[in-house]
Design goal:
Layout: E1 3-7, H1 11-22, E2 27-31, H2 34-44, E3 48-52, H3 60-70, E4 76-80, H4 85-93, E5 98-101, H5 106-117, E6 142-146, H6 150-160, E7 166-170, H7 173-182, E8 187-191, H8 199-208, E9 214-219, H9 224-232, E10 237-240, H10 245-258
Parallel strand pairs: 1-2, 1-3, 3-4, 4-5, 6-7, 6-8, 8-9, 9-10
């Protein structure tokens, strides 16, 4: 196995990659900014670092340069949601090992890590991953979308269904609770601001009834107390509206992995 450092200012990305790579018998440590990454690098001396390009205060290029100063042979894979040829060229000048776009299949990222792990000088990983170590697959997975705006339900349905998910929808909190009781989904995408029964009230009822799946909250508002209540009730993440569908797919994958039974 390898020791891997994951650096990203989004907590969900760190947790997702930690969960996925740990299943492949890697030891994973995380950092949420460049300075924390450098401290972790000095302490843990990882064999591979997965480094986000766009971070506040100290970006990925600055962090990469500092890591290479500590260890000129450091193996670093740069991750970016939006990259340019100039940024990629600068990263390669600084000695980046590989450059991957966010939104690629997790299998692609794991494959890139395994190829690096097989290079001489890195501790070998077992040839066959542990039983059940593969990331959760989408086919047949039931996702319930709860939103009082039908076009939002329809948009998510049309986006996720071709990707192998079985999508159900509900336009009210009461309808959602009835569907969850009848056929509990693996994941619920839950709007916070709904008339009659808002998302937090729905979530409270779900927890009282021992719903064990994942919940991702969706909101167009910045009602901090309400959002904090949703997080306190065990939401995996909060997504702002209008929805970024590519990020939604990543959040859904993360939610399924982080809440696996």
């Amino acid at each position: 196995m390898s020791k891997i450092l994951v650096v990203d200012d989004e907590r969900m990305i760190c947790e997702l990659l930690q969960a996925v790579l740990s299943r492949h018998r890697h030891e994973v440590v995380t950092a949420m900014d460049g300075r924390q990454a450098l401290e972790s690098y000095r302490v843990h001396r990882p064999g591979i670092t997965l480094l986000d390009l766009h971070m506040p205060d100290m970006n990925g290029l600055e962090t990469l340069a500092a890591i290479r100063a500590i260890d000129p042979a450091a193996q670093v894979i740069m991750l970016t949601g939006v990259g340019t040829d100039a940024l990629e060229s600068r990263a390669r000048e600084l000695g980046v090992t590989d450059f991957l776009r966010k939104g690629l299949s997790l299998d692609v990222l794991v494959s890139a890590v395994e190829k690096l792990n097989a290079r001489p000088g890195l501790p070998p990983v077992a040839a066959t991953p542990a039983l059940g170590a593969e990331p959760a697959k989408s086919e047949g997975t039931v996702i319930l979308v709860v939103d009082d705006e039908p076009h939002i339900c329809d948009l998510i349905d049309k986006f996720l269904t071709p990707r192998g998910y079985q999508v159900q929808t509900a336009c009210t909190g009461l309808n959602a609770l009835a569907k969850i009781k009848h056929n509990p989904p693996r994941l619920v995408l839950l709007d916070i601001n709904m008339p009659g029964m808002n998302g937090v009230e729905v979530l409270r009822h779900m927890r009282a009834n021992r719903y064990a799946g994942g919940v991702i909250v969706m909101t167009a508002s910045q009602d901090e107390p309400l959002l904090q209540q949703a997080l306190d009730l065990g939401s995996v993440d909060v997504m702002g509206k209008p929805l970024d569908l590519e990020r939604l797919l990543l959040v859904v994958e993360a939610g399924l992995i982080l809440t696996e039974p």
